[in-house]
Amino acid sequence: MKEVALQRKYAPKSICFGCGPANSKGLRIESIVQGEEVVADWTPEPYHEAFPGMLNGGIIGSLLDCHSNWTAAWHLMKKAGLDHPPCTVTADYAIQLLRPTPTDQPVHLVAHVLESTDTRVVVEAKLIAKEKVCATCKGTFVAVKPGHPAYHRW
What we know:
- By secondary structure, this protein is of the alpha+beta class.
- Helix content is 19%, strand content 36%.
- The strands form two sheets. The protein has a six-stranded antiparallel sheet, covered by helices on one side. It has a two-stranded antiparallel sheet with strand order 3-4.
- A hairpin with a 3-residue loop joins strand 6 and strand 7.
- It is globular.
């Protein structure tokens, strides 16, 4: 039986462009927990290209940002023993585009936690295509409280 993606399990009504299951025009990534890592496979379409055969850098950034954010939310949920992840937002993230990313097959995302407090998580992630790391990301994600515009968006 296939594991249910974090987004579908905890945020089925989310409209986030990168990871919202309810956004029919979004990327709809599906992050799955595998041990201490969170992984996802995502298939590009021609309209995601920067030029023929290569993935747009902005799409790469969205994939890594959302996937890393869900990695942080899952980590905080497990760390605090919660049954639902806290709502987390991106505080900062930096993308390194290492090589062009081909669009003729799915890309693979892998993320893991580097460090955390009770409300802040630093995540490292990579995007792999054709068994080569094409982009990396390091970001900080924070749990938000009532009153923040993103609170309870999931």
